[in-house]
Write a structure and sequence with these properties.
Blueprint lengths: L2 H7 L10 E3 L16 E5 L3 E6 L8 E6 L3 E2 L12 E6 L12 H6 L6 H15 E12 L5 H5 L8 E5 L5 E7 L14
Length: about 190
Amino acid sequence: MSSIDLLAGAQSEYVNVPMVLDPCCGSRMMWFDKADRRAVFGDKRSETLVVTDRTHRPDGTRTLRIEPDTLIDFRDLPFADSTFKLVAFDPPHLERAGPKSWLAAKYGKLSPDWRADIAAGFVECFRVLEPHGVLVFKWNETQVKLAEVLALTPCAPLFGQVSGRSGMTHWLVFMKPANSMPTGDKGNP
């Protein structure tokens, strides 16, 4: 049974209800346990791609599997308000990438209207968080600076950390206030 099935069928079985949402899971690269039952893994893509890569494989390819529990759009999440304790939001961060790009296959690519997409994603991620819930946001600013993205969120981060070989990947932690956050129009069940 997948995490999404547990969420849909959960009533008072609190321990079996996934408490974490990853709405842009991709190939679940950041997860230690890629099948963690505490999380719902969502993505708009479900595909297996074979891409050219500098690997030690004789044919020079790598297989990338994007297998979400459920197909979802992070701009319009199918969950009620205040459903999750933690959301891991790692949206696409590339504006420019070729049609056969390994990076675009791995991370996805921003749409031409990416500012509206990311702003809607933040609103939705905060909407599905319970009050005082935690949003962990990951962004690589190789093409789009973090400051441009932070201008799109309705809440300021608590703290963050820079990582990666070139110091371009940022991990930020937000906490949803108890009130005064936009809630969208999904309502509670």
